[in-house]
Design a protein that fits this description.
3 domains, 13 helices, Nucleotidyltransferase, domain 5, 60% helix, Arc Repressor Mutant, subunit A, RNaseH_sf
Length: 218
């Protein structure tokens, strides 16, 4: 889409006109208003390349007060802004962008809904049946590849059950009611951040699983 934005820019179109044309001809997954305006500003400033510039991946360079503030403002302006768009605007990696969203802004109760949806399931027959595949295709959701029988990618396995297992070590129950009572209290006692950490670890875990050729890892 960047090349198309540049094409319309060179033809003298406005950012608004460009956004309307992209929505008309491409419909799905078009860049947001902010992204179109961002690239128009870049081209007006003399930028010619549409490729990503070198981004900072070091926390000390990326997680700055300026970047946190800019991402905060963008999220407040558009709750459906994409992580990639935030990374483009701040010129930092998507990994650091997710860190700012999950570890810093989340603690300030700043929430956002990504425009694109990436769906992960565990390859169970009920999840891979044709009606499910057809529905996912109709919704235009991207399906994230999942290694067969891999607990490395299931948040319930690598985070939830692992933590629960430590809490259950050497514990004995006399009845089903005792088990249920303990579980209810355990779930309630876990703070909201506990479950968010579960989700925000997923991109890193998925990348590790891919680079390890789907082998198990700690």
């Amino acid at each position: 889409f960047r090349s198309l934005i540049k094409h319309y820019f060179l033809r003298g179109k406005t950012a608004k006109e460009t956004k309307e044309k992209l929505d008309k001809y491409y419909v799905a997954n078009t860049p947001s208003d902010y992204t179109v305006k961002y690239w128009f500003r870049e081209f007006r400033g003399g930028r010619n390349s549409t490729t990503d510039e070198v981004r900072s991946g070091r926390a000390s360079d990326a997680v700055t007060e300026e970047n946190v503030k800019k991402i905060h403002e963008m999220v407040l302006a558009d709750r459906k802004v994409k992580v990639r768009e935030l990374a483009d605007a701040t010129k930092i990696s998507t990994e650091r962008t997710r860190h700012i969203l999950g570890e810093i802004l989340h603690k300030k109760k700043i929430f956002f809904i990504p425009k694109e949806i990436i769906f992960l399931h565990d390859n169970a027959p009920s999840h891979t049946a044709k009606p499910v595949r057809d529905t996912l295709k109709a919704l235009n959701w991207e399906v994230l590849a999942h290694a067969a029988y891999s607990p490395d990618l299931a948040p319930s396995d690598y985070h939830l059950f692992a933590s629960m297992g430590h809490a259950l070590a050497e514990r004995r129950f006399a009845s089903y009611e005792d088990v249920k009572k303990w579980l209810d209290e355990w779930f309630v006692a876990k703070g909201e951040d506990f479950y968010w950490r579960d989700i925000y670890k997923l991109p890193e875990r998925w990348e590790k699983c891919v680079t390890s050729n789907e082998a198990y890892f700690e």
